[in-house]
Amino acid sequence: MKKSLAGALLSVLLLGATAATAAPATALDTSTPTTATAAATPKVRAVTFAGTVALSNCSGSVVRVPNSQPTDPALVMSNGHCLESGFPGPGEVIVNQPSSRTFSLLNSAGSKVATLRASKIAYGTMTDTDVSLYQLTSTYQQIQNSYGISALELSAAHPTQGTAISVVSGYWKRTYNCAIDGFAYRLKEGEWTWKDSVRYTSACQTIGGTSGSPVLDQATGKVVAVNNTGNEDGERCTDNNPCEVDQNGNVTVRPGINYGQETYGIVPCVGTGNKINLSAPGCTLPKP
Predict the structure, then answer these.
(1) Smallest Cα–Cα separation from 154: which of 129, 171, 173?
(2) I need a labelling partner for 24 at 20 to 30 A (CA). Which of 8, 98, 253, 257 fits?
(3) What is the pLDDT of residues 25-81, one digit of tens each?
(4) Pairing state of beta strands 152-153 and 59-64?
(5) Closest CA to 129 of 226, 45, 223, 42
(6) Where are the domains of the chain?
(7) Dihedral angle at the C-alpha atoms of 259, 124, 74, 227, nearest 10 degrees?
């Protein structure tokens, strides 16, 4: 798992334990497109830090689904392995657990503009995916009115191979730019297994503390995944060294390659009032 800083200090789990103390470099594509290529390239929406947050040990973002309303209590998304209660075990799902955790809200330049507070952990798991959703004491409208910052929208569509993406870390105030290289049918790391994970191209060399960062489609600005892990040492299916397992059980190890968990599957599970409804039609998130 892409190591949270607390995890890096307290255990061997999560990506980049040794790298967590070093300042990450932003991975940028410095190639210059030809005139023909530039003309054919769709306009790219500027990616900024607005709406991202810093947790005590991880990164995250204020997110909404397409049907969220301005008066709904806002949601913050991070990783399941970033929960203050520790890593959920395999098969464990947390819902509606009280929490008063705080988050530093960033503006477009990466400066802190507010401290947001949770009222509860609405959902958290490390089974099939690696995600946490906190419900805040503030609504989207209150955040917009007070700080001029809008929530990032979760895409309702499965991400596409080749899409240009940005992993935006509120903890480090760093952005990593690359593309979706493909998808892992199963991604296994230690005790945990995740389904249909996003594999990045090698340019996204994310480190500890980037756990929970939103992965943005550069063309739409929508969230397509949540950053969570990478293979550090070339080991096979161990902590900090996830491996890919295909439909036939074949195992592939990709040293130095990093991954995120798709977020489109969250959208059907968020109902009226931003309440998590695991029984809603189309919701396939693991249930308690």
Answers:
(1) 129
(2) 253
(3) 323 232 333 333 333 444 567 799 999 999 999 999 999 999 999 999 999 999 999
(4) parallel
(5) 226
(6) 5-28+156-264, 52-154+266-274
(7) -10
pTM of the model: 0.87
Q: How far apart, in whole angstroms, are the C-alpha atoms of residue 256 and residue 245?
A: 17
CA distance 168 to 31: 21
- Torsion from C-alpha of 185, 191, 192, 193, nearest 10 degrees: 20
Among 225, 269, 216, 219, which residue's Cα sits nearest to residue 68? 269
Place of tokens 């790298």: 19
- pLDDT tens-digit readout, 274-283: 999 999 999 9
Query: Nearest to residue 256, comparing CAs of 227, 239, 238, 231?
Result: 231
CA atoms of 12 and 143, how far apart (whole Å): 36
Domain 5-28+156-264 has CATH 2.40.10.10: yes
Structure tokens at 286: 């693991």
Per CATH, the number for 52-154+266-274 is 2.40.10
Q: How is residue 216 written in tokens?
A: 């943005």
Residues of the chain with pLDDT under 50: 6-42
